[in-house]
Predict the structure.
Amino acid sequence: MKSVLTTVALSLTLTATPLFAGTSPQETDQKPAAEKPAAEKPAAEPPQQPVEAPAIEPPVRPSQPPRPFPEGSKVAYVDVQAIVSESAEGKAASGQIQSFADKMNTQLQPKTKSLQDTEQKLEQGGSVLSEEVRAQLQRSVEQQRVELQRAQQDAQRELQQLNADIQQKFIQKLLPVIGKVAQQKGLHFVLSLTPDVLFADSGLNITPDVIKALDAAAGTNTPPKK
């Protein structure tokens, strides 16, 4: 018997289209500091948005009614993002990343609040503050901004690393399942549905079969769509 060749083209570049993405609260608006002496150095740039993981926007294609798999076809495709969104394994992985992102943002809140309070003191002080106190507050604002920005960058790196690790484990579980479904259907190629694909016959979509097989391998059952 000829061996079955299964090829799956998966977009796994984290910075481009991550399979899993955690969300984060919006960056807190920084109020402008009170007017500073002309000789003073400009304030540091505001911190970046914390723990940011870009959301995935699915490709827009004309919807097609489900069709039976064409008899004798040796090629099929899967929607990896749909597998992530609808399978029990994918939902669990996404939840793990979201929980981590929420935890990181919670840890950053005290630094953010401290910076806001210091900026408010500087702004509300106005001309009442002495030059010495004003200078101290301005230095404190700049220092806290730098510290917050570094903490945000560290949290973002941790989130990206976790995303990459979980994504790799998910793919390691997914590929054998796709191969098994491909063998059952006698396929030679299984392709990944990406935004570059302008049209794909719905009859060649084996995503539901893969989700069902993946959940079965994990010991869970995904309820059918209504």
In short: The radius of gyration is 25 Å. The CA atoms of residues 19 and 81 lie 6 Å apart.
